[in-house]
Design brief:
Elements (H helix, E strand, L loop, with lengths): L6 E5 L1 H14 L5 E5 L6 H11 L14 E4 L3 E5 L6 H6 L11 E5 L13 E8 L2 E7 L1
Parallel strand pairs: 2-5, 2-6, 4-5
Antiparallel strand pairs: 1-7, 3-4, 6-7
Helix pairs in contact: 1-2
C-alpha cells in the first residue's frame, strides 16, 4: 500500500463507510493497520466496515477476551486492551501474524507499537459529537 499523507477528517457513519471502501481497495495481504482511541470511539465499527469491503462474510466482533479473531483466512483482528505487556503478546505466539499473509488489524496497539513495521497504517478514532474524527498516519 502506498503511504498516505497524514490527514484528519470527521465522518458520519455513511462517510466512514465510503472511506473504508476506498481503503479496502488499497490494502494488500500483509498490511498492518492499528486502531487507537478511547472506548466507544469507533475502532470496532471501523473494523466491521473495512471487513465488509474486504468481502469478509463472517460476523465481525471485537476479540476483547480472546485477543484475536481470524476472519475468512484473510484478516487477523486483534484487540489488545487487556494485554499487560509486549512480552505477553509474544508469549502467546501472536508475532507470527506480523509480516504474514493476513491483513492485520490491531485495536489498542500501544504496547506493541515499537515492534510493528514502518509501513504500518496508524489510525486514531475520536468522538466528535455524533460523528467520528479519524486521523491517519502511514
Amino acid at each position: 500500500m502506498n503511504a498516505h499523507k497524514p490527514f484528519t477528517a470527521v465522518f458520519n457513519l455513511a462517510e466512514m463507510d465510503l472511506f473504508t471502501s476506498s481503503l479496502a481497495k488499497e490494502i494488500k495481504a500483509g498490511q498492518i493497520i492499528t486502531l487507537s482511541g478511547d472506548l466507544g470511539a469507533g475502532k470496532t465499527t471501523f473494523t466491521k466496515m473495512l471487513c465488509k469491503h474486504l468481502s469478509i462474510p463472517e460476523m465481525i466482533s471485537s476479540p476483547t477476551y480472546t485477543y484475536l479473531n481470524i476472519y475468512d483466512d484473510k484478516v487477523a483482528h486483534f484487540d489488545l486492551y487487556r494485554l499487560k505487556s509486549s512480552e505477553e503478546f509474544f508469549g502467546l505466539g501472536f508475532e507470527e501474524y506480523i509480516g504474514s499473509a493476513y491483513i492485520v488489524i490491531i485495536e489498542w496497539p500501544e504496547k506493541i507499537l515499537t515492534y510493528l513495521p514502518e509501513n504500518t497504517i496508524h489510525i486514531c478514532c475520536k468522538h466528535s459529537g455524533n460523528k467520528r474524527e479519524i486521523s491517519i498516519n502511514g
